[in-house]
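Tokens as discussed.
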């Protein structure tokens, strides 16, 4: 069984994905499609940058980055709204 390493620079792509999604929404991208865009960007980053030539790793890392970026945005938005009240 191979051991998969997930380097720190891969985790740093998550806020970048959040930023790209926010820019896309400001330019008219539908909000309800943002989780799908997040997964697409996560897969793209994983296949091109994190694990090129290793499809199983890239799929796993892409899912983690895509779903984490959606959770990071919704969690920070909820916290901001709660603190604002």
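Sequence:
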């Amino acid at each position: 069984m191979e051991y998969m390493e997930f380097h720190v620079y891969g985790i740093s792509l998550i806020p970048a994905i959040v930023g790209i999604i926010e820019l896309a929404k400001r330019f008219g991208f539908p909000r309800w499609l943002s989780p799908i865009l997040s997964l697409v960007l996560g897969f793209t980053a994983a296949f091109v940058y994190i694990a090129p030539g290793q499809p199983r790793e890239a799929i796993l890392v892409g899912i983690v980055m895509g779903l984490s970026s959606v959770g990071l945005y919704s969690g920070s938005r909820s916290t901001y709204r709660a603190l604002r009240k």
